Amino acid sequence: MSTRPSTSQNSYSTTYSSDFKYHHLSRIQKVTPSVARYSTSSYPSGGCEERKSLKSAHGLVGLRNLGNTCFMNSILQCLSNTESLRDYCMEDYCMEDNGGLMEEFVSLMQSMWSSYGREAVSAFKFKTQIDRSAPMFVGFKQQDAHELLHYLLDGLHKEVRVTAATAGRRGTEGIFDDMSDDEKGKVMWSNYLERENSKIVELFGGQLKSTVTCHHCGFCSTVFDPFWTLSLPIVKGPMTTIMDCMRLFTKEDILDGYEKVTCFRCKVKRQCSKKFSIQKFPKILVLHLKRFSQAPRTKLYTNVTFPAKNLDLKPFASENNVNTVYNLYAVSNHMGTSTKTGHYTAYCCSPVSGEWYNFDDSKVTPICSSKVRSDSAYILFYELSS
Ligand SMILES: [Zn+2]
Question: How many domains would you assign to the chain?
Answer without folding.
Answer: 1
